[in-house]
Design brief:
- The complex is a heterodimer of chains A (303) and B (133).
- Chain A is globular, with a radius of gyration of 21 Å.
- Chain A contains nine helices and eight strands.
- Chain A has an eight-stranded mixed β-sheet, sandwiched between helices.
- Chain A has one domain: 3-Layer(aba) Sandwich (Aminopeptidase).
- Chain A starts with a helix and ends with a helix.
- By secondary structure, chain A is an alpha/beta fold.
- Chain B is mostly helical and 133 residues long.
- Chain B has one domain.
- Helices cover 77% and strands 0% of the residues of chain B.
- In chain B, helix 2 runs antiparallel to helix 3 and helix 4 runs antiparallel to helix 6.
- Chain B is globular and about 50 Å long.
- The chains are: A alpha/beta (303), B mainly alpha (133).
Chain lengths: 303, 133
């Protein structure tokens, strides 16, 4: 009898790793996909943004952008993140325009989760929420918003957070990154210590199905962590240079910044067009990218 | 004839107020830009205002000429505003949304009002400040 019990125990112990693997959370969870589908349908006019009768067909005019601001504040509140609005007024792109037009106004939406230990630097995760005129902006950049909200939702659930965390939704990226430039000006004045900045733009297209995710101008240390985590998730990481989005504003001021985006050779053909709609988003790829960013930030925090 | 003479000071006063009032939009614009750290419009306004005040007080030029020039400047400003609308719509998608969404009905109303104001200032330049000289 003893021998039988021992044998049973040994077999049970032997299959434990298999059970553990089976119940381990998959890289891409169905919950994340459902959540991101809900967000992107509201942001692109597939569903009402206020649960009633208001549908956003783009996020470009002052009124549409204000509606988006209220929506994002609501989403951050639901997650339990402390929120603030960074409202700014600034000059036009040149003096001549200033003579004939009013100053430019906009609003960045900021959420903050404090580290569970003291005196830690901030990691900033950002994406723009405005769109080009006439485009619903599903991939550019409702996907960026959905990625940020999925990551911050997971980050909020962590028992131990070893970095202060700011999530920023930038206004007016389509107008020469006005929102992020104004945010960086304000950030510099606060003098807070920034560990790294991760900007997300255009992250929902993977027509060739190779699940490659691109990083633009990452610091080597950050790129290495992304590559390691990418390896664990089975996704390739492509690195290229330059500055094409809100990462430009941070790079110009010397912040360690990376842009997370689609593979360069496999970008949405509907960029800045009326066809950049909900149905073109690859939600599996978006959820995978979200997991990559979350795990990378966690690894950076745990270093 | 005597009736006309009695009304004249009052008419002149209103035209003078209108002349002063035509500076208000630019003072507002100058202050709004000054508050966000861009003083050039305010400085430009101060310089022009100082020149007008000096000219009115010291009379190195005919006052009617100074008033008339301001009226013409207003008309030119209003016309450039309206021409810019055409430029914005002909250039299309590459124009910043921050500019496009300022082209509201109020933008056209202000442009037309400034043009009309400039026109009446030029037409009545001799009545302003009783500037018969």
């Amino acid at each position: 009898m003893k021998r039988y019990l021992l044998k049973q125990c040994c077999s049970f112990i032997a299959v434990l790793p298999v059970i553990a693997f089976a119940i381990q959370e998959p890289a891409v969870s169905g919950g994340t996909i459902a959540y991101q589908k809900e967000l992107i349908s509201a942001l692109t006019g597939k569903a009402a943004i206020d649960g009633g009768t208001t549908f956003l067909t783009q996020r470009s005019s002052p009124k549409e952008r204000e509606l988006t601001v209220q929506y994002l504040l609501g989403q951050l509140d639901k997650i339990g993140v402390s929120t603030s609005e960074h409202r700014y007024t600034t000059t036009n792109s040149n003096v001549f325009l200033d003579l004939f037009y009013a100053p430019v106004r906009g609003c960045n939406v900021v959420g903050e989760l404090r580290a569970t230990i003291k005196d830690r630097p901030y990691v900033i995760l950002g994406a723009h929420y405005d769109t080009e005129r006439g485009s619903p902006g599903a991939i550019d950049n409702a996907t960026g918003i959905a990625l940020l909200l999925a990551v911050v939702k997971k980050w909020a659930r962590l028992k131990e957070r070893r970095l202060n965390f700011k999530v920023v939704f930038f206004d007016q990226e389509e107008d020469d990154e006005i929102g992020s430039r104004e945010y960086v000006k304000m950030l510099k004045k606060t003098g807070i210590e920034v560990h790294s900045v991760h900007v997300v733009d255009l992250i929902g297209w993977d027509a060739d199905g190779d699940q490659t995710i691109a990083l633009q101008s990452p610091p080597k240390k950050v790129a290495d962590v992304y590559k390691t985590i990418g390896g664990q998730l089975g996704t390739a990481i492509e690195v290229f240079g330059g500055a094409a989005s809100d990462n430009k504003s941070f790079l110009e001021h010397g912040y360690a910044t990376v842009l997370v985006t689609d593979e360069l050779e496999d970008m949405t053909p509907y960029y800045h067009s009326p066809n950049d709609v909900y149905d073109t988003v690859d939600f599996e790829y978006l959820a995978l990218s979200s997991e990559l960013v979350f795990r990378t930030l966690k690894a950076l925090a745990d270093e | 004839m005597s009736k006309l003479t009695n009304n004249e000071p009052s008419r002149n006063k209103w035209w003078t107020y209108l002349f002063y009032g035509s500076f208000l939009p630019f003072i507002g614009k100058g202050i709004s830009y000054l508050l966000i750290g861009a003083p050039y419009i305010f400085v430009l306004g101060i310089l022009y205002g100082a020149w007008v005040i000096y000219s009115v007080r010291s009379r190195p030029f005919k006052i009617s000429k100074i008033v008339g020039n301001w009226g013409r400047l207003l008309m030119l400003y209003a016309m450039v505003r309206l021409v810019l609308v055409g430029v914005v719509f002909s250039v299309g998608g590459s124009v910043e949304s921050a500019i496009v969404y300022q082209l509201t009905p109020m933008y056209y109303v202000i442009s037309v009002v400034l043009f009309v104001l400039g026109y009446f200032i030029v037409r009545n330049k001799r009545l302003i400040f009783n500037a018969r000289a």
